[in-house]
Every structure is written in structure tokens, then in C-alpha cells.
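Priority: low. Protein: M-phase inducer phosphatase. Input follows.
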Amino acid sequence: CRQLFRSPSMPTSVIRPILKRIDRPQDRDTPVKTKRRRSVAGTPGEEVAAEPVGDGETSGSFCHEEIENLLANDHRELIGDYSKAYLLQTVEGKHQDLKYISPEMMAAVLTGQFSSLIESCVIVDCRYPYEYEGGHIKGAVNLPMEQDMEEFLLKKPIVPFDTSKRVIVIFHCEFSSERGPRMCRFLREKDRACNEYPHLHYPELYVLKGGYREFFPQYQTHCEPQDYRPMHHEDFKEDLRKFRLKSR
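Result:
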């Protein structure tokens, strides 16, 4: 997961804003504090002197281990290209490397509460077609297979007309336990592969916590048809077997 969402080759221009949010050591005798006091006494106003310096380092540059530590501590606060913070409020989910939103937050997006900041919201329903046809979130696209994902999102990436606004992608399946998270990671992996780091076509990805199973009972009016067909429906055992074979 670490390889998908970040890289040790983080440019300095991205590291600097992250540093401003890292708590400074409290011990006055740490190398950071000592370096800062000496620099202030000699050349006041030099910001580079306040940057932490690794063992044996004599300049303000960062070694590989320091960059890794900075990103490990703070990378979840920024979207995939490290350009800005995540827009939507997130909640704890099954997979710690992914960003989850609640059904309430999904409903807020659907009702246009973020329309001034989001130009396009792509809701990716990763369930099998018979599940999708039995009831899905309005406007969601059904992309159950990896090739479907590549064809729809990467062959001709969605680009905002207004560069001040965002394109976000929200994944879900029945429970958002396996299929949704897997496809979210797949998109990030392919997106990384076809772009120069850290640029991404889709830097802001979310997973709907609880999936359609949790969203439908609370927000039926946002679904069409207003129904819920589970993956293990008695009438679709053959369809389930067929799509599971395709997924392997």
C-alpha cells in the first residue's frame, strides 16, 4: 500500500509544507533546537537553519530515511499528488491505507453541498451487474472488472474545466469490504504508472464505508430502483459463479 500512495522520491517543494505541520521536538537539547539557536544567533532570518538535519548531515537536505518518516507521519492528510488536503471528512474504515466516508457524507455530496468545490464526482459501483441492476446509487457507474475501470477512467481521464475545482472518485461494493477497496487500489496503481510522480489524474479517492448495504436503508431516495439485491441472491447463483471466474 505504501508503494501505491507515496514514494521516497518526494520533491523538496512538497516536503516543505508538510514540515510546517510536524510538531517540533520538545527537548531543548535536540539537534533541531541546537541548530536553530546557533543559526538565529549568527544569521537571523534564515529559514533553512530551522530545518531538521540528519545524523552526519551538514546541510538542510533530507536523507531517504527522513523523507520516509515525514511521509509516514503526514501523508494521510494530503491527497495523492500532495497538492492539498482531502476535501471530505473521513471516518475510520477496515483498510487503514484508504480514505472512507460515511453514508451521510455521500448524501451531502449527492445533494450538492460541495458543488462549489467539486466539479465532477464519479461514484464507482464495483458490484456485479445483477446487483447493480437490482438497485444502485443514482448516477453511479458500474465497473466490476479491472478492464472496465481502465477503459472508463484512464483511457480518457476526466479533467475539470475549472482548475480550481476537484474531480473525486468514490468506490463502493455491497459492504465496501473487498471489491471496492481492491478497485480503489487498482486505480491508484495504474494512475501512478501512467504519470510522472507525483502527478495523478485522480488524486482524491474515497471508499463509501458500509457500502450499498449501509447506504440504501438510510437514503433510499438517492437510489434507483429503490431496492437492494444482495450478491448471494438465490436467483443469481449462476451469475455470481460466472463473474467470480472472470475476476480471477
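Confidence is low (pLDDT under 50) at residues 6-61. The first strand starts at residue 100 and ends at 101.
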